[in-house]
Amino acid sequence: GGDKRLGKGEYHLTAHVCVFSPDGRMIVQRRAEFKALWGGLWDISASGSVLAGESTGEGAQRELYEELGIKADLKDEQPRATFYHENCISDYYVVRAEVPLEAVRLQKSEVAEVGYATRDEILAMIDDGRFIPYKKSFIDMMFDMNEAKDRNMFKL
Questions:
Q1: If you ran DSSP here, which 8-state letter would residue 101 be given?
Q2: Which long-range contacts does 103-106 make (Cβ < 8 Å, 24+ apart)?
């Protein structure tokens, strides 16, 4: 309850995680149908609000475990990208892990199903309205950041 509006200089903090398989596919989740925002649409691996007293790494780690049952140690990780938009700061983490889908445990109140998708599959799902309408350049950037984890992101 209470007034959720934020004052000047106050921000809502969110944490987002893109989990990639060693072969470069992203774990994607389909949001529960009854979710008010983007219900039934496919989304990146996990995301949510950061709780008071948590770092965004801790929030990302908690959301990934709550939504998909995937354990990752992100407490001391730095986000790969931070976006500032109206009264909201969103930190994005990129994780590479071998996660068999049968090991994923869905939080039914949040997640309807889970799968792996390539960059091209996600871009096609954005086109046909099955994926949250992220900017395609953002999806490209997450895939590029995963590929850059092994080498310098900037070709100098």
A1: G
A2: 103/69, 103/70, 104/27, 104/68, 104/69, 104/70, 105/68, 105/69, 106/29, 106/67, 106/68, 106/69
Q: What pLDDT score was predicted for residue 28?
A: 98
pTM score: 0.88
Q: Are strands 81-85 and 26-31 parallel, antiparallel or unpaired?
A: unpaired
- Rounded CA-CA distance 137/101 in Å is 27
Q: What is the mean pLDDT of residues 95-108?
A: 92
Strands 12-20 and 88-96: parallel
Q: Would you say the C-alpha torsion 100, 78, 134, 111 has a positive or negative sign?
A: positive
pLDDT (tens digit, 9 = 90+) per residue, 136-150? 999 999 999 998 876
